[in-house]
Amino acid sequence: MSELIYYDTDKVSEKRKTKNESIIKGEVKMNRFEESKEVFNKLFGELPDANKEIDHELMEILRRFIFGDVFHSSDKLDMKERELITVTILAVLQTLPQLSAHINAALNVGATPIEIRETIYQLAPFIGFPRTLNAVSTMNEVFKSRDIKLPLENTGTVTDETRYEKGFNIQNPIYGDEIKEKYPDVPEIPKYLTEFGFGDFYTRNGLDIKTRELLVLVGLTTIRSDTQIKAHVLGNIKVGNSKEKLLATMLQCLPYIGFPNTMNTINIIKSI
Asked: Is the residue at 202 inside a domain?
């Protein structure tokens, strides 16, 4: 298993400042191939043989952009966070071959099986159970291939009697009674959101609230749910994720969801 890259924040910030100045001047002189190769090796191992890649040109554009540019765009995210963001996107998109590759990559840079499982489990309220189960099946195949013992340990913390109260205790300080006030004629919606969305998932061990909020925002950005994106941008700020970290997260999303969806959420972040 490859070891996690640990960044020297001062050096990365200075490097990024210099690179930004070069970008503005149109004078980028960094060796993008070497930068992309270094990151790719950490995530996936050795580069494929160029002579055996049918679409080598496209794959080189992909690797240099994702691993040479985007992965070096900010020091606000570490390698593990970047891969959990990517796992979230690919699970939402149901691009299961790529999801398999990036679950492996997440393990290679220090994500635990529990962290990966929780990243996927918590998508259920947002994309539904069928797609979540597809992603879980892909995840478990990766775990089996790496001799990770299944089932993983239980991380639930609630019972039928406590899920509403514990969910409410997380939800209310962040979101208040907005949903309850908006759906008085469908009282099941706020009740289910508190019990199911927050009670069944946000209360689980394995990911902290800041990470959960960040990854939920990523999922909502992927499906472009604008009203919920705005609410969860505010929620992220309330739990301690800075605007700078949210913007860095959107840059990490860009290669996987494209410019329109990415810029949509960036504009919402900028407006708050």
From this structure: no
Residue 30 lies in a domain: yes
The residue among 34, 30, 31, 29 whose CA lies nearest residue 47 is 34
Domain that holds residue 2: 1-72
Residues 6+ apart with CB under 8 A from 147: none
Does residue 215 fall inside a structural domain? Answer: no
Sign of CA dihedral 105, 110, 61, 245: positive
pLDDT tens by residue, 118-170: 999 999 999 999 999 999 999 999 999 999 999 999 999 999 999 999 999 99
Cα angle for residues 151, 154, 158 (degrees, 5° grid): 150
Count structural domains, the chain: 1
pLDDT tens digits, one per residue of 165-182: 999 999 999 999 888 888
* Other Cβ atoms within 10 Å of 13 Cβ, number: 14
CB-based contact 248:73 (threshold 8 Å): yes
- pTM beyond 0.85: yes
